[in-house]
């Protein structure tokens, strides 16, 4: 004799599936937020590194000029 699931047991299975789907959607949202935060951090770090490179280049140029004037 085959066992046929009742409507209640089918509904419980569907409810569990909906909860899991909701959990996945929530997790994906959290991952998206984290990626956005990391992206902002990387962008600001890259800008700071670029600024530092410009300052270092200017300092090097100024030091070379000063050295040439002293020679």
What is the averaged pLDDT score?
86
> What is the N-to-C succession of helices and strands?
H
Could you give the count of β-strands?
Answer: 0
Structural class: mainly alpha
Which range does the strand content fall in?
under 5%
Assign an overall shape: rod-shaped
Measured between the Cα atoms of the first and last residue, the distance is 104 Å
- Largest sheet at a glance? none
Contiguous runs where pLDDT drops below 50 for at least 5 residues = none
Oligomer: single chain
What can you see in these coordinates?
With 71 residues, this protein is mostly helical. Helices cover 90% and strands 0% of the residues. The protein has one helix and no strands. 0% of the residues are buried.
In short, what is this structure?
The chain is mainly alpha-helical and 71 residues long. It has a domain at 32-71.
Provide keyphrases for this structure.
mainly alpha, 71 residues, 1 helix, rod-shaped
Break the fold down into its secondary structure elements and pairings.
Layout: H1 7-70
